[in-house]
Amino acid sequence: MSEYLNQLNDSQREAVTTLEGPVMVIAGPGSGKTRVLTYRIAHLLNSGVAPWNVLALTFTNKAAREMKERIVDIAGSRSNSLWMGTFHSVFARILRRESDKIGYPSDFTIYDTEDSKSVLNEIIKEMKLDKNTYNVNGVRARISAAKTQLISPEQYAKDERIRSRDQMSRRPYIHVIYERYVKRCERAGAMDFDDLLYKFYYLLRDNPEGVKEKYQAQFQYILVDEFQDTNFLQYAILKMLSRYPESKQNVCIVGDDAQSIYAFRGADISNILDFQSEYQDVKVIKLEQNYRSTIHIVNSANHLISYNKKQIKKKIWTDKTEGPKVKILRALTDTEEAKRVAGLIQEYRNRHYIEYKEMAILYRTNAQSRAFEEHLRKANIPYKIFGGLSFFQRKEVKDLLAYLRLVVNENDSEALKRSINYPRRGIGKTSLDKMLDYANKNEISTWRALTELQLPPRTTSSIKEFVQIIRHLQGMAKESNAYQVALEASKLSGLEKLLKQDTSIEGVNRLQNMYALLDGIKEFVEADEIGEGGEVANKSLSSYLQNVALMTDLDQANNEDDYVTLMTIHSAKGLEFEAIFVVGMEENIFPSFMTLNDPSQIDEERRLFYVAVTRSKRLLTLSHAKSRYQYGQIRYNDPSRFLEELPEEHIDAPTPKVKVIGEAPGKGYNTYDASPKGRVSGHFNRSPRSSARPSPKIDTSNFRPSPSDKIAKGQQVLHLKFGKGKVLSVDGSRDKRVATIRFEDVGGEPKRLMLKFAKLQIV
DNA sequence: TCCGCATGCTTTTTT
DNA sequence: AGCATGCGGA
């Protein structure tokens, strides 16, 4: 029964079995975090807790799905009644159920980012504001940030600091836009992603009919995964749900502050840093053993992350001492970088029998994938790029969904705008603008405007036709299932016909995508699942749409095909590979130029690098190019500062070949000198002259490093790579101690070595 | 209404 | 370079 407990180490077991009270699990990379979470939930069930009393929140659907599958394996089908999902999906479900209490229809629409932006554009245009100053993305970000800070439009308008900040960026009218935006969403019966949290918070806070106590009583055990990525609002909800601070709370948060990489979208790292002071008697459990990576990777990661000040103390370690060092690859151009990475991939596969699917190329920005794509294709290496448009964001998919959305919620203004004249039926921009204008003047929904407004006879008859299509489908939705309605919509709307006319490759693809959507709906209808809390899952069109709106990630990954993975570092979080290539290790790229003058953003970039490095089990290659095409021009970037933050003893830096008599000076990357602006110190910028020296002769078999705490000023020491040297000084404290050592055989400045990592033998 | 060209702007991304 | 957006002309 509790066989699973034996599969855990001591701290893991403690995290799994400490069921009562607040628990904070700091889970280093590869430390078995998912295992702990799943076993903990299984353990709760085995300890007699009812599944519907457990709430487990994740950030992605994928994470929730995978965890659920694993729990079902251990604890059986009752796990289906757990409340488990993303913050958004769980709260959307509750909001739907309690919709009458917040004045929303239960079939409310969820606006995705595109919808939100479209609403905002409409407002900005109508207010005749300059769309460059009031750039939609910026405005949306401000509004989203406001909601995340629980600032209503009224508060926003009153808040001096916020207003003066907008004033400074010459956008004094954002508060007006915000107010109108909220009104418009309400009129459309729509919530954006932030609203799912925002409105849920206010539902609890305003507590109509005691809903707050209802859900507090319901969710007796709460778990939150990836807690370092929660924002202020999510934390506020968590505190409210867990009855904080009135009583004892059974909250278990799991995360790693060192892997917090989503501050740019509101994640607040202080949530995890301050958790201990927010809750009382928090049991802190650290999972510090890394089962994933070799010592070279673990120590490199530890070393680089030590450059970040704000951190929860932990010591990640591994017992895997075998393995190659971290490789640094230096290329002249981006093309050469890609070529050589492709070459290494071939070599790993042919000589070391590593499968393609065990290798990944990680980059900072999606745009970097191009060169690699090209060269992988040339080298006949199968690959798959992740990221970019998801299935549900494709135009043809959204087009059909717009009809379905309108069927479920006719007030959905964005769906109406999208579908009314696509396929074309002669309702042009002018007519649409009139409708929107009328709707906004009279504060009614666009749909109502369309039925009330007098327009030229021709337009009127087109509108009538359109209304009839929607009405017909609405009638159908009452008796038929979601699939039947969707199929009918694809025909009646004329979308299928339109797509069939396009016989180009992309056109055929689009049609296939629409069919794939229909298939997906069919699958949804036929699947017989039990939903959260043990309810029989709702198969209506409306519930399908709700699902789909939050279901952006369709995981295309499968285990059958053998291909190299290409993705951004962000999307690699949580994954692991035998071999990792982190490419574009250059200033301006990684760290991104956007972050260069903000130390806290540099810290986030560093955490991102930490995530990248720790994805690797054994092989890690970091590459940079001296020049590359960027924004249509050749740019020269210095090697990333992060490369200098790696411990030398775990690195294989590219040093020019040792000169053989008679051989011409090396060519290609081996002649690459530090660029003129290059930094002075650091292993990879060493001048060719000094690094070309023969390495100091040390008898490695007799080398016995002394304990780092014994190293002191004035000692003569030996280092495997640098040879004999004298300790000039030691500064810093505890595991941050750094020794300054002058090595006899290595010219130039004395070296500064982190004692925690440097292997030195006292002579 | 629609198409085509000019212009401008480039991080990361989940829900 | 590539993409999205916007404006102007047919």
Give an overview in words.
It is a single chain. Residues about 655-700 have low confidence and may be disordered. Strand 13, helix 28 and strand 14 (about 615-630) form a beta-alpha-beta unit. The protein starts with 9 loop residues before the first helix and ends with a strand. It has 30 helices and 21 strands. The chain is globular. Strands 9, 10, 11, 12, 13, 14, 15 and 16 form an 8-stranded mixed sheet that branches. The protein has about 775 residues and is α/β, with parallel strands linked by helices. Helix 5 (about 115-125) packs across helix 9, helix 15 runs antiparallel to helix 28 (about 600-615) and helix 22 runs antiparallel to helix 23 (about 480-490). It binds a DNA duplex (15 and 10 nucleotides) through helix 4, helix 10, helix 27 and helix 28.
List keywords for this structure.
single chain, 763 residues, alpha/beta, 8-stranded mixed beta sheet, 6-stranded parallel beta sheet, 30 helices, 14% strand, DNA-binding
Could you outline the blueprint of secondary structure elements for this entry?
Elements: H1 10-17, E1 23-27, H2 33-46, E2 54-58, H3 61-75, E3 83-86, H4 87-97, E4 109-111, H5 113-126, H6 136-148, H7 153-158, H8 160-168, H9 174-187, E5 190-192, H10 193-206, H11 211-218, E6 221-224, H12 232-241, E7 251-255, H13 270-273, H14 275-278, E8 283-287, H15 295-305, E9 326-333, H16 334-352, E10 359-363, H17 369-378, E11 383-385, H18 395-408, H19 413-419, H20 429-442, H21 446-452, H22 457-479, H23 482-492, H24 495-501, H25 505-526, H26 541-549, E12 564-568, H27 569-572, E13 577-582, H28 599-613, E14 616-630, E15 633-636, H29 641-644, E16 651-652, H30 688-691, E17 716-719, E18 723-731, E19 738-743, E20 751-754, E21 760-762
Parallel strand pairs: 1-7, 1-8, 2-3, 2-6, 4-5, 6-7, 9-14, 9-16, 10-12, 10-13, 11-12, 13-14
Antiparallel strand pairs: 14-15, 17-18, 17-21, 18-19, 19-20
Helix pairs in contact: 1-2, 2-3, 4-10, 5-6, 5-9, 10-12, 15-28, 16-17, 18-19, 18-22, 18-23, 18-25, 20-21, 22-23, 23-25, 24-25
The chain binds a DNA duplex (15 and 10 nucleotides) through residues 59-61, 86-89, 92, 110, 112-113, 131-132, 192-194, 196-197, 229, 261-262, 264-265, 364-367, 370, 387, 424, 426, 428-429, 549-553, 568-571, 589, 592-595, 604-605, 608, 629-633.
